[in-house]
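INFO worker-7 received task bundle
INFO bundle size: 2
INFO processing item 0
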Amino acid sequence: MNRIIDFHPEGIQQKEQDIQRRIGVFSLFRLVLFVGLGAFVVLFFSDAFYWIFPASLALWTFVWAIQQHHFLKDQIQIFRSLSKIEQEREQRSSRYLRDLDSGSEFLDKDHPFCNDLDLFGEHSLFQLVNHTHSSSARQLLASRLKAQLNVENGYRLHGAIRELAEKEDLLRAFEAIGKAFFNEKEQKADWSTWMSQPVQFRSFPTALGWIGLIGGLIGATLAYLGQIPSVFLGVWILLGLPFLGMVFKELKEAGDRIPSQTVLKTYRHWLLLLEQEKFEHTILQNHKNKLMLPEGPSTSKLLEELDRLSLWIQNRMNLLYIPLNLFFWTDLLIYHRWAKWKNSWGKEIAGLPEELASWEVLISLAIFEREEGQSGSWEVSDQMELEVKGIFHPLLLPKIAVSNDFSMDQSGKLVLLTGANMSGKTTFMRTLGINLVLLNLGLSPFAKFLRVGVFKLYTSMRNSDNLGQSISSFYAELSRIKGMIDCLENGERLFFLLDEILKGTNTEDRIAGSEALIRQLAVREFLGIISTHDIELSRLESKISYLRNFSFHSQIHENTIDFDYLIKPGPCPSFNAHKLMELMGIRFGEKS
């Protein structure tokens, strides 16, 4: 990046219009230079030798004008990406996520919690967090979202994310570069492995390359001066064909494997940003060090050299290059430069895509942290406990979301959650689960304060039938519960969330089965919440010491039902299914 690209979003439309006008001027200037260059070349061959000097100046100016034109086009792309970034920021802020990448292919019904907590799919956490550009970074972010809880690691990462979130210019520039230039279709999947493999370096192509260049120049000069017949030039070309064939295969493979210029441009600009940035947190320093070379040029400089090499390598079949190559045997010199570069630096930069994917994920998390602006604190406890103050769901609009305070420990390790339909039971359980995922990512919770013990997360909330496998929703739920029991019996510490337990069977069996499960868990180390409509189960609080009742309430009026969405101690005093059915048109008491 020899010139500074403007990443500031202020006045984007006016800046874009100004640059469009400059592009028009440079396009006209290039046309004039091209016509002038052609005229000087004609005069060189038809009039006198000294016309080579204005021709050379015109050629240099033409190349400079092309570079300026490309720079201005890059700036236009940056401005357009900044506009797109602002548009997506507003969509996330308003929680209008329909047009954003849903990551639905990462859903996994057998995963301990991802399907139940809206991590992927329509209106999901992935849509809020994801600012990645490469498929490898996208997959890495998905794996982080699905990773089992390790809140201690998340707490260490939290400091790094907070520091990165303060670097607004870096975040904006990094995302704008990726959105402007990175093209996943032009990324080469096996680039890293191939880059680390050395080229079998041979010295004779180098000597032959210099012979071809010098011989071609001498031959062209002598032919121009009329000292040798022009047929000699044809003989010279035929003489070079076997030598060019020696390196053709390896250069073709390099052209097929080296990433496109747009991908290299993205990588190079990202590296320049990171090389110029200073980080205090150890995690960020370690990630940066993986991109740097202990000795030699900077990594961005190496990619700049690779970019120039790839321009020659990938354009060798160009109609303008072919006669140049045949006459001056330039492939031999290109092969020499390529072999020397790859053998010197190929292994050093082979891991760049993987490391830059990690930075894409870090940047995504930091952008989320900055945009959401959550300032709540959290800490890790060595006790099996969970305490939250002012917690709410990140997928709800913060200005309308209702926050709750809640705590549980081993003295009341199991909570029975009752409440009216639509009162907020399921949303509250998902609120706890998805905030734990945020902590695991190193992000701030959507809460004023959160204290969390060390445990794994397990949920059973969205259990559906599968006709293809002849599985009913009830059997699917039993399978989930069995998975949870197996984890507990294997000594794992769990925080589990079971929504509307055993809802697929009759009331008598549901109550009996629920009580049996609750008693079965007595000796296990866990925290758990079970929601149910069976108010009869709330009576177990007086019989089972580790069971606590909590509930959500509703107020029934003549034509409406009001909810406050606040969790309260004790069982639910009343339910609203009868009234809801009336409001939906079901008339009780009418007989035909």
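INFO item 0 finished
INFO processing item 1
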Amino acid sequence: MLRPRATPTRELVNLDGLWRFAIDAAAGERPWGGRLDTPLEAAVPASYNDLFTDREIRDHVGWVWYQRSVRVPRGWAGERVRVRVDAATHEGRVYVDDVLVAEHAGGYTPFEADVTEHVTAGHEFRLTIGVGNELTGRTIPPGTITVTADGRRRQTYLHDFSNYAGLARSVWLYSVPHLHVEDVTIVPGVEGDTGTVGYSVRTSGPAGVRVRVVDADGAEVATGEGANGVLRIPDVTLWRPGAAYLYGLVVEVLDGDRVSDVYTEPFGVRTVEVRGTSFLINGEPFYFTGFGKHEDTPVRGKGHDDAYLVHDFQLMDWIGANSFRTSHYPYAEEVMEFADRHGIVVIDETAAVGLNLAVQGGLTGVPPRPTFSPETFGDETREAHAQAIRELIARDKNHPSVVMWCVANEPSSAEDGAREYFEPLVELTRKLDPTRPVCYAAVIFATHDNDRIADLFDVLCLNRYYGWYIATGDLATAETYLERDLRGWAERFGKPIMMTEYGADTMPGLHSVWDTPWTEEYQQAYLAMNHRVFDRIEAFVGEHVWNFADFQTSDGIHRVDGNRKGVFTRDRRPKAAAHALRARWTGLAGRRP
């Protein structure tokens, strides 16, 4: 799905701001059937949970409703008009006046509706968006809904971050000509000093297509005819980590001799390859330094915020990070575009977190059920997972910053049924995009001896917490465990290995002269122990600390005001470990230490 852009033939109106808001119990039977009768207003983009002081809203399980009036620009007469929702977590329904125009399941990818037949240029219409936050065994991510003794519905889930919900990203109204570009796929390559640009254009109807490539200064460097082809850029400037360079593919749709639509898709020319135990970008070994992150800030929850976007990338630059993983869901498109422009490398992940009932058993003491079965996570779950992969790749396929697809985080990959569940998903991912490596992040219970799916993937991404959840406070023992673990993976599979999670909860300002868990000193010592081991493993290609910043989790006795493994606090103040990481990472520039 193409991102809405203003072009010579397209216009767009941003619908962010304050919308009327109500939970389902207060919204009436048909919230879309008239003006929403509510005193509440909610900010868009933002999760709704922390906006209000009413705990009933914060803990609500079910549907909520947003509504506002929208005026179609009078100059849009004769154009197609679309409403686009960048994300509705976890399910969305869109109504124009009292007509349902779109439905979508999946909380982190966009959807849209052509509303041309329901609106009139120059006139207002009532836009109502319902958002459902329920997670079940058939959703990605999964969850369970129970009813308490007093009749309240309660949502539980298997991921360790708050189930923020609502319209956390922008909503748009935009126009396109009747004959227009529907999709563009760009596949870059390099032949010596020449860049190759394979392209494929899908249009709304039979039409001529003309394309040209412009450089960063707008100068034309290549041209072509037809909806499919390969263009060549002499003396190409490559997109490199830390040194981004973007071209633009300008697509013109022809209605006879007339240009009906113009759309420009930014792209970078670079290659990605796994060779032996090396991860190569543009044929050069690349070493990942960075973080697992979260879209999480005070009050906004998962709501996208450009100020935090800029500041977070500034902090990553300051600390020497060259990459991050979109744990544990696709991030806002603004984030991906910023990474493209600033040369930050991205591992792009689906929302498939929590496919692991063994973890639930370990936390609760209740014997776990099998993770993969018709009664737990079966064919319906896998189809929801497959759809999440399709939508992720469709949205992010042209981003040069994206160098690897991560299909899941910490699934129960050592269990019966894991291979039957994941093998078709890996095949689908490779079919949709054969140009990028594929990975998953392996939970600590999955070892080189018992894991059943690692051979399907290109890079071994491991989440390990020796010294925190295992051998807590005993870093000498933790170091022995970690090195033995990593060497086992390296010897069995002969693939690149990176750590996609390692970290220790740390209360800012808590200090000790001893290696005491939760202190800032222990977080530093913990990270240093991991780094000593990493540097001894020849196949190692990267380190992503968990987490960039502290983040909110569900209520419970396992967390005190959220997960505190951040190197920065939730409001982005550095802990002592941030300075230690900066000393290690600054100057590496993607090279092996």
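INFO item 1 finished
INFO post-check item 1: The mean pLDDT is 94.
INFO post-check item 1: DSSP finds ten helices and 30 strands in the chain.
INFO worker-7 idle
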